[in-house]
Fold this protein.
Amino acid sequence: MERPESRCPPPGFLRLFVLTCLLILTAVLMFPMLRTFSLWLHSSFTGRYVSGSYSIVFVNCPNEQIARDIARAILDKKMASSVNILPKISSLYFWKGEIEEGTEVSLLIKTKTSKVSRLFAYMRLAHPFEIPEVFSIPMDQGDARYLKWLEEGMKEN
């Protein structure tokens, strides 16, 4: 009587597969932290700014009071060093299939790129809009003294 072929993977295959998946998952989760650490290390040794270490986050708010409240909370939580409030901008946008027009107040938030995801999470909780307009752009260049000032403003006590 012939022995039926085994449908099981070769010995050790499952272990190798699990280890590979864990390695990939770890690399994906660790990348932002490793990138931030390597940028910090490079800046420390060379004394130069590395493009993308800091970002500007743009947020539109329905009025100036909400913009001020959000700006103060962000600064209190050390998620940024500086927030500019640009009053009364005119906005046109699609909302639920219709073109809407309104007046908003813009925030320009200067922060470390490593804090952007935390800032986005905070905006989803604190912002009154159903879908807040929140996006970031990395800073390409900047005055070294200004960037040092930004860094110092976000240090945790």
